[in-house]
Design goal:
Elements lengths: L3 E4 L3 E3 L4 E7 L7 E8 L6 E7 L5 E3 L7 E6 L4 E6 L8 E9 L12 E2 L3 E6 L1
Parallel strand pairs: 2-11
Antiparallel strand pairs: 1-3, 3-8, 4-5, 4-9, 5-6, 7-8, 9-10, 9-11
């Protein structure tokens, strides 16, 4: 059974940086996409960034372009999210997710395996 375990969430000041990590168990193959989502209480889960493992293509929501970078280490089966120049509006619970043959890379319904989340809090 595939498991995803996130880590790296913390409380930081605006302008700071964090790197989130997601340890994935199970096999990887070219049809997989892995992604980071975030959610604040009372709002829908939002796609932040995604990577298609088949060719390494990455996708970002507009609000994080130029600040966040998603990477996947195939050898370690680890997913990362480097977050720079953090803003208060980035405060959320961040989730790692995995999906197969994803069509809409930032749509939560496309992903069928989820981690438990890691909290990121940015103070202004």
């Amino acid at each position: 059974q595939v498991q995803l375990v996130e880590s790296g969430g913390d409380s930081v000041e605006a302008g700071g940086s964090l790197r989130l990590s997601c340890a994935a168990s199970g096999l990887t193959y070219s049809g997989l996409s892995m992604a980071w989502f975030r959610q604040v209480p009372g709002k829908e889960r939002e796609g932040v960034a995604s990577v298609y493992l088949g060719d390494g293509s990455t996708y970002y929501t507009d609000s994080v372009k130029g600040r966040f970078t998603i990477t996947h280490d195939n050898a370690k089966n680890m997913l990362y999210l480097q977050m720079n120049n953090l803003k208060a509006e980035d405060t959320a619970m961040y989730y790692c997710a995995r999906g197969l043959w994803v069509a809409d890379h930032l749509m939560p319904l496309e992903y069928n395996t989820w981690g438990q989340g890691t909290q990121v809090t940015v103070s202004s």
